[in-house]
Amino acid sequence: MKTMKKFLPFLLMVVMLFSMTTVAFAANDDDGSITVTNATVGYDYAIYKVFDLTYSGDKVAYTYDGSNAEFLAALQTEASPFVLSPTPSDENTGPFNVSLKNGKDSAAVSAFLTAQIGNLTQTGSTKTASSDTVVFDGLAYGYYYITSSLGSTVTIDSTMKDVEVIDKNQGPTWDDKGKTIVDANGNEVLVSSANYGETVNFKISVNATAFNGDKEITNYYIKDILSAGFSEATITAVTVNDTAITDGTGYTITREDDADGNHVFEINIPYDSDAYGSNATIEVTYSAVVKNTAVLADADGNTNTANFTWIEADDPNPDPDYPSTNEKKTNTYVYALGILKVDQEGNKLSGAEFTVKDSDGNTIYGKGSDGVYEYCASSAEGAKSQFDTDANGILVIKGVAAGEYEVTEAVAPLGYNLLLTPVTVEAEITEAYTTTITYYLDADGQVTDTVTETVKTEDAGYNVAGIVVVNNAGTELPSTGGIGTTIFYILGGILLVSAGVLLFVRRRAGYEK
Fold this sequence. Notes:
Blueprint: H1 2-17, E1 32-37, E2 44-56, E3 59-64, H2 69-75, E4 82-85, E5 96-100, H3 106-115, E6 121-122, E7 127-128, E8 133-139, E9 142-148, E10 162-166, E11 179-182, E12 188-189, E13 191-193, E14 199-209, E15 211-212, E16 215-226, E17 234-240, E18 243-244, E19 252-257, E20 263-270, H4 273-276, E21 279-289, E22 302-312, E23 328-333, E24 335-343, E25 353-357, E26 365-369, E27 372-376, E28 387-388, E29 394-400, E30 403-411, E31 423-427, E32 434-441, E33 447-455, E34 465-471, H5 486-512
Parallel strand pairs: 1-10, 13-23, 24-34, 27-29, 32-34
Antiparallel strand pairs: 1-8, 2-3, 2-6, 2-7, 2-9, 3-5, 4-5, 11-12, 11-14, 14-21, 15-16, 16-20, 16-22, 17-18, 17-21, 19-20, 22-23, 24-29, 25-28, 25-30, 26-27, 30-31, 32-33
């Protein structure tokens, strides 16, 4: 017991001294082991023996054999946190006793060994973590330095023969697509477009770890701000490593609307490292429906923002703090289609009616009147597929997704020719938000020329992807019934010629008599 009391302060000093590296006392007959717990699956771990460890009675000593000339030289520099005795010389090439310089700490030890990694000899082969533990066995007594491909040194808090080392280099992260929109084909995108009433599916993914550096994580928080242009979020699943957890036991959720009408929810997930392991993937999937309050043809679209944070053990301030630099955003665009009906002089015409189809040939339906309609499903009560212009010749269909639309005139204004050829308008964002195409027609209502301009359609009061449709005055009616008058002119001419010929023949016959 007295021996252990004498030895304990030295062990504590060693642990404090080498807290940024791995120290292990393994048996002289090479049956010791170091187990790295909290390892990150898929990352590589390597172990290097730095110094030998020997016992002499109740004393412990670190020694270096001087086998690597470059490392021996580095140990003698001012940057070295170690002292060698006796002093190396041509006559004395090792082994040397190793101790710590006064004033040097664990950070200095870690920085020095990291810089000297090329002069250390790796023990055994590199091991890739297939689970949250990595075991190095068959080790002799010594001071060992363990690295991982996470880019940092593995730490230690034990000095027993069979040592367990907690890898505290981990930290929570998420990639560039921490929040995404999942489209109809299952693709994860950051930008989408949708119609009024359409459901948009979202996904949030966090790379969670049991530790942040050397601090254990107890809870993860995920916060999402859903634009006021959407309905409140419907949570479809919360999973950890693809295993669903339930509301009230695996997580809790709170909801509120902010001052701008955005829908905010926050999910609190207690992190159980025994159940989830040293690292895990947390995913939240949810859906929301585009409402008729969505902004139309705005440069930023309807922006939705997600963020995540965590709470560490013994944190004096347990309230989650979300750094703005950690935000991930998606954008969903919604458009309005506009038609301006004019005559050859640019005068606005009312009384025109149009039908519209999307790029897949589907007929567009809407609800409304007097030139202003909102996209809706064909089965909606009051839905119509033929839209009329208002007294100012304007027709607007709000709430459509991006793409090309085919516009066909079904009824022309009274006294004007019907546009016989469909025209196309594209819902898209440009620098000025909308594209206007002016069509020039001939007397038969056929398109002879087009002029495209990028403008902001102000007549509608908001951004509209619009076209100007020109109608010519006049009406053409087809002839119907009978064979027409031409044949009578032909027959009359034939009869007239025949009568002339007959008269000439008769006169000549009388003269000859």
